[in-house]
């Protein structure tokens, strides 16, 4: 894959007039829908329209494959794409937690899956918890993550224990703060 350095791109952009630069950006947005989604997220950061699109992609993977092989790369790519498009940190965390909820619900509905499934969902949960802590979103998500962890109890392959451990590592301090009040 060809790569241009930032300095080469800057040099090109500096040679353009304002009108040419605007035309180039508009043309890219027309050619690449993901750029249009990025600008939509910048201009309307509280809108959930783009978030809903990515939730539907993930939901489709869990509802479409009833006990068939799930397409993990599609789920992971949806999270990655939305993370690149959105400027709303809370919505990015929302999409990751939503994905884990879909995974837990899928298991509860269809029974024991396989080790790869549980590793994937656990990995996304850890990524979500780290993101929540890094962006100081604990207050917004602690109850939901706790509920999600409780919902996973009874699921095999060590999944429930892993979920509890992850919750404890990242958000366990929130429970202690609530106990002190």
How many domain modules? 2
In round numbers, the mean pLDDT is 91
Stretches where pLDDT is under 50 for at least 5 consecutive residues are none
Please count the helical segments: 9
- Mass-distribution shape: elongated
Alpha-carbon Rg, integer = 20 Å
The SSE string, one letter per element, is HHHHHHHHH
Structural class: mainly alpha
Quote the distance from N terminus to C terminus. 56 Å
Main beta-sheet strand count, sense and barrel state: none
Secondary structure tally: strands = 0
Which percent bin holds the helix content?
over 70%
Characterize the structure shown:
The structure is a single chain. By secondary structure, this protein is mainly α. The longest helix is centred in the middle third of the chain and has 22 residues, at 89-110. It is built from nine helices and no strands. 28% of the residues are buried.
Task: Put the structure in a nutshell.
The chain has 181 residues and is mostly helical. The chain has helices at 6-14, 18-31, 33-43, 49-64, 72-85, 89-110, 115-134, 138-151, 159-180.
Which descriptors would you attach to this protein?
single chain; 181 residues; mainly alpha; 2 domains
Please describe the topology of this protein.
Blueprint: H1 6-14, H2 18-31, H3 33-43, H4 49-64, H5 72-85, H6 89-110, H7 115-134, H8 138-151, H9 159-180
Helix pairs in contact: 2-3, 4-5, 4-6, 5-6, 6-7, 6-8, 7-9, 8-9
């Amino acid at each position: 894959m060809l790569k241009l350095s930032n300095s080469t791109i800057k040099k090109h952009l500096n040679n353009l007039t304002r009108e040419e630069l605007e035309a180039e950006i508009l043309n890219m947005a027309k050619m690449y829908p993901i750029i249009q989604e990025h600008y939509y997220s910048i201009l309307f950061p509280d809108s959930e329209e783009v978030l809903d699109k990515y939730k539907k992609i993930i939901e489709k993977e869990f509802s479409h494959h009833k006990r068939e092989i799930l397409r993990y790369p599609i789920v992971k790519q949806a999270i990655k794409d939305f993370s690149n498009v959105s400027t709303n940190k809370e919505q990015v965390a929302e999409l990751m937690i939503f994905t884990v909820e879909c995974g837990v619900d899928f298991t509860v509905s269809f029974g024991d899956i396989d080790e790869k499934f549980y590793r994937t969902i656990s990995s996304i949960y850890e990524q979500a918890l780290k993101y929540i802590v890094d962006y100081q979103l604990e207050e917004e998500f602690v109850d939901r993550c706790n509920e999600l962890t409780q919902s996973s109890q009874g699921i095999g392959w060590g999944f429930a224990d892993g979920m509890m451990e992850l919750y404890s590592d990242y958000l366990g301090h929130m429970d202690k703060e609530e106990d002190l009040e």
